[in-house]
Amino acid sequence: MKLGKELLPYIGILLIVILVRTFIVTPIKVNGSSMYKTLNGNEIMLLWKNKKWERFDIIVAKTPTDTLIKRLYAFPNESIECKNGDIYINDTKIEDPYGFGETEDFEKIILKEDEYFIMGDNRLISLDSRRIGAITKDQIEGVTDFILFPFSKFGKTKN
């Protein structure tokens, strides 16, 4: 009986950790260089599961074959296209300070009610919505904007 009382605080801590990781925040590792120059690959970041998404946030999305870390460009019911290397959302040219390398032109895509358009910063090698199509809300796991490791990059990403 005494052992049970001694273990109770540890069980409580374990439950809190499990709940926090499941519903609030969890670490995630960046693989590859599709987000270069913002991320080089192998960073350990925090994934915020309940944070509201904004344009240009770095999000984590699950596809049937992979987990993607990309930047969010367009929201449901918006249009997006690239003409002469410039990105247009709803027919308005946007400033795109994140793109590294030339963005290949693509025809206008009109997103449906539950679709989002994502792109990696390293446009020449990124596997993103230009290749795999739009993603849906239920594929988005959350926003990642804080680097834990390497310690030389510790802190909020430069968005």
What is the secondary structure topology, with strand pairs?
Layout lengths: L1 H22 L1 E5 L14 E5 L9 E5 L4 E8 L4 E5 L2 E4 L2 E2 L12 E5 L4 E5 L9 H4 L2 E2 L3 E10 L5 E2 L3
Antiparallel strand pairs: 1-2, 2-11, 3-4, 3-11, 4-9, 5-6, 5-8, 6-7, 9-10, 11-12
Characterization of this structure:
The chain has 159 residues and is of the alpha+beta class. The chain is 16% helix and 36% strand. It is built from 2 helices and 12 strands; from the N terminus they run αβββββββββαβββ. The protein has helices at 2-23, 129-132; strands at residues 25-29, 44-48, 58-62, 67-74, 79-83, 86-89, 92-93, 106-110, 115-119, 135-136, 140-149, 155-156. Strands 1, 2, 3, 4, 9, 10, 11 and 12 form an 8-stranded antiparallel beta sheet that branches. Strands 7-6-5-8 form a 4-stranded antiparallel beta sheet, with no helix packed on it. A hairpin with a 5-residue loop joins β11 (140-149) and β12.
Straight-line N-to-C gap: 53 Å
Shape descriptor: elongated
Model regions low in confidence, pLDDT < 50 over at least 5 residues: none
Q: What is the subunit arrangement here? A: single chain
Main sheet specs: 8 strands, antiparallel
H/E topology pattern: HEEEEEEEEEHEEE
Short description:
With 159 residues, this protein is an alpha+beta fold. It has helices at residues 2-23, 129-132, and strands at 25-29, 44-48, 58-62, 67-74, 79-83, 86-89, 92-93, 106-110, 115-119, 135-136, 140-149, 155-156.
